[in-house]
Amino acid sequence: MEKAAVQQDGLLIPLIDFSKFLNGTEAQKLETAQAILKGFQTAGFIYLKNIPITPETRAHVFGTSAKLFKLSQEEKMACAWTTPQANRGYSEPGREKVSLLTEADEVEKVRAAAPDIKESFEIGRENEPGHPNQWPVEKGELVGFKDTMTKFFDDCNALQVEVMRAIAVGMGIDPGYFDSYVDVGDNTLRLLHYPAVDKKVFQINPGQVRAGEHSDYGSITLLFQDQRGGLQVKSPNGQFVDATPIEDTCVVNAGDLLMRWSNDTIKSTIHRVVEPPQAEGDVHPPRYSIAYFCNPNFKNFIEAIPGTYATEAEKKYPGINSGEYLVQRLTATY
Ligand SMILES: O=C(O)CCC(=O)C(=O)O
Ligand SMILES: [Fe+2]
To answer: Which GO molecular function terms does the record list (predicted)?
Structure first.
């Protein structure tokens, strides 16, 4: 069987070779699909290796993301995030650069607010009526940005369709059961930048994190992290456990709507990003990650998946429209 990517405090996150689902024998396909489903049912998280997104593509997309975040604040704010319905554009860090952190009242503000130290840029499906993407002006280093990101969006979309097929195979239902629920691509590509930050910030406020604890909202999230570390997943015993980066793997986690859809047989597990301990220097270096949040088609009605309940009375939730569910959740956070 596969190795564990993470095994600590009752949390076992499997490391799964996805090429065996895509290109393996029937027996390998089934075994891989079952391992994927089991990972979602127990940890809520899996790591996939040998996915169709190449290391070269991944490096190129990370490089392009870094170029975006190097733009001036003014240029980034020209693409500002607007509404939960659109869910596209740039979100600025919760506070000013920490190099300004000299005045006592500034320090006090940090202590009081402890905002996440991160900035992000969200990209949705192209051609969604009424919700254009907030593309930055393509000049200098940013030439090709839209092309790179829309291609990556489509690559991730193709991958998530396959992961949903694996879940269906694991459940023993029609392998294409989810296809008509996930074919529109109502997903969000989120570029994340956790800027370099003075160590003092973390000393002043021991509760300071990079991204506060949360669960994701949708069906599944594909998460690409760099080698910095900091992602932590809550174990069944309530401890946060490091989900250490493994090169060229993609972390995949189930979201709240998939948990609901699966009648709570799949887990949407709480996670966060902290600053990993570091001995050298006064400054924590930056971290980059890319999350691809997948949702069932916004127009679809989501009711318990066949096989996740024996009788009507065992259905834990009423059906809900996917798009309405997501907008409700986003409205509560922004
Ligand atoms: O940056 C990361 O590694 C995780 C980000 C995350 O969990 C999120 O944006 O939902
Ligand atoms: Fe998340």
So the answer is: metal ion binding; oxidoreductase activity
Ligand 1 geometric centre to CA of 222 (Å): 10
Among the bound ligands, the one closest to the CA of 292 = 1
Q: What is the percent of the chain where pLDDT is above 90?
A: 80
The half-sphere exposure of 160 on its side-chain side, counting CA atoms within 13 A, is 33
- Residue 261 contacts residue 217 (beta carbons within 8 Å): no
Measured from the CA of 289, which atom of ligand 1 is nearest? 1
Q: Quick one: which H or E segment has residue 64?
A: helix 55-69
Domains of the chain: residue spans and CATH: 58-157+187-333 (2.60.120.330)
State in Å: Cα 235 to ligand 2 middle.
15
User: Taking a C-beta distance cutoff of 8 angstroms, is the pair 50, 18 a contact?
Assistant: yes
- Contact partners, residue 313, CB within 8 Å, separation at least 6: none
Q: How far is the CA of 104 from the centre of ligand 1 (A)?
A: 31
**pTM for the full model?**
0.93
- Residue 25 pLDDT: 98
Return the bridge partners of 124, or none. none
Number of residues in the chain:
334
| 304-332 exposure pattern, b = at least 16 Cβ within 10 A, e = fewer | bbeebbeeeeeeeeeebebbebbbebbee
ipTM of the complex model: 0.99
291 CB near ligand 1 (under 6 Å): yes
Cβ of 192 less than 6 Å from ligand 1? yes
